[in-house]
Amino acid sequence: MDLASALAATGSDDVSDPSDFPENFGDLRTLDRTLRCPICKDLFNAPVLLATCGHSFCSLCIREALKEGEKKECPACRIPTQESSIKKNIVLEESVEAYKGARSNVLFLANDAVSRKRRREESANGTDETPRPKRMKRQSSDHVLQSVDEDDERPEESEDSEVEILDSNALVDCPICNHKVLVTRINAHIDAGCPEEQLPSDKGKGKVQWAKLLAGPGGKTGSKFGRRGAGGDTDRSSSPPPRPLAKVSYHTLSNKQVRMLLQTQGLAETGDRKQWEQRHAQWITLYNANLDSSKAKSTDQLKRDLDKWERLRARDEKEKEARMSRVDAKGYEKSQNEHFAKLIVQARASVQGKSNGTLVKGEAESDKPIEISSDVETV
Amino acid sequence: MLGGSKKTQSSTALRRLMTEYKQLTTHGAPDGMFTAGPISEDNFFEWEALIQGPEGTPFEGGVFLARLTFPTDYPLSPFKMKFDPAIFHPNIYPNGEVCISILHTPGDDPHMYELSSERWSPVQSIEKVVLSVISMLAEPNLESGANIDCCKLYRDDRSEYERRVKQMIREQLGITE
Ligand SMILES: [Zn+2]
Ligand SMILES: [Zn+2]
Ligand SMILES: [Zn+2]
User: Fold this and answer.
1) pTM of the model
2) Distance between CA A44 and CA A61 in Å, rounded?
3) B151 is catalytic
4) Where is the UBC core domain (chain B) (predicted)?
């Protein structure tokens, strides 16, 4: 499957998920998972929480979800709720924004540690048989995900001059006393109640990478938050925060009244009554979600978002009809026939009492379907 | 490339589907019980799942193919799941469509008994649904019958039901004796 081109087509950031982190960094996977919206599975965007139960979502995601259907309930725990229970989750937004800045560096450190460890093991064993796992990399030049061999993307000098995070000389901050401690000593140090530590004279190495990490990409994270604290927030506190728009039950309104609603918001009056209502309802959703974001968009930008939503929706409707009638037989045959044939061979074997009939684990991971050639007929 | 359909697909749904696909291909399903992915790269909204019959049930040894069709407002609305070829099972319609509460929204209520706690919600996922369907294969729910004849057989003559299921599996695998 060509994830890369599909992704390029969304025109947005790459698809990330907790499994980007190596398996033995379970804590980082957990951290990554907790900072994701359970609806869109992306890192939170303008997170809000439901005062009725405490679960958090992107503002837009939960507003869209509560718009559907008559029953209003938390999608995670199904406790009844309503739009008025949506509250900004300020600390979560700050955490997520900081994490977004740090993520690529954390990821680099983790992957780097793994590949160095592997290389050490390989050179110790004197074999180089293990295939290197491919991983997704986003190329900043053309915004396309590519599967690259890890060694190809690492700059030459990193071999010696950069930090090994698993290096026994690396320093970490003790979470208890905040002093620098050798990574190899940290557990013993905490167990011993934080005694003073002897540090090696050459403590530059570990610091370089962690300093980069703390500064975020190009050192921007720090300044971004500084700016926001100094500028944006004070601006906002000087004038009362804008109020969310109230929902409307359109069925009690005349056509004229619905047009009035559109006019009040400065929205187009094109299309039929159904489109007016959908346009107005979506405007309320976008507008209210925008109030929950610390990086609020301008009204003009929001109107462009609304236009885009309407265009997409119109095309979706058309596409839906088209899809109903079309059977995608070609792609189906191409991608699944061989795979399916192989499973059938296995299943036959198992039904007929031979023992190796289980699905091969990790089947889906291989890029190429397994060749079966003529086995199917001969079984 | 997505080609012509590129502009038409809702990007939220597409991103969410790609995330789920990536997770399924990275981790694989628990115990390798199923695999799932888009049928063709032209359309991320049509998936196929290959499901192993659960062990210790008459479905053991079978491999079943199901088509998953996603709405453009996924995950707000659930997807549809249809076995192709159809499976002989109390909760699967003779045309292969799966009838299971996790694929029904709280609003849409074909069976009044269904608890809303078992219904679709946008935090559900393809993996959770397919695992629910696998456990449904093992334990049919007679209250939400979709194949009436099969329900009766399951209730009144369990060994004949099991024989029919096993026969169906052999036929689907092309084993004739
Ligand atoms: Zn979200
Ligand atoms: Zn909740
Ligand atoms: Zn300490």
Assistant:
1) 0.62
2) 10
3) no
4) 12-174
